[in-house]
């Protein structure tokens, strides 16, 4: 991962993309209106907390591969 000072503001390095998912059907991004066939997953790390926290230390957010905005989606295992 490139150091934050080496990146332009809001720019995500391709190495930061943890996974990529293909959608069964094309959808539109609610932010940039691009037609999407895939979504990308970026890892979320808790950097600082001023209290004893029961919140998870890690997580994931799903982003549009075009505009890099966080989109509402769910990663779940279905049987």
Structure characterization notes:
The chain is built from no helices and 3 strands. By secondary structure, the protein is mostly beta strands. The protein has a domain at 20-74. Strand 1 and strand 2 form a beta hairpin. Mean pLDDT is 80; it is low at 1-8.
Quote the distance from N terminus to C terminus.
34 Å
Shape: elongated
Q: How many whole angstroms does the radius of gyration measure?
A: 15 Å
Strand order of the largest sheet: 1-2-3
User: In DSSP terms, counting alpha (H) and pi (I) runs of 4 or more, how many helices?
Assistant: 0
What would a concise description of this structure say?
It contains no helices and three strands.
Features of the shown structure:
mainly beta; three-stranded antiparallel β-sheet
Chain-wise SSE layout:
Blueprint: E1 17-28, E2 35-45, E3 58-63
Antiparallel strand pairs: 1-2, 2-3
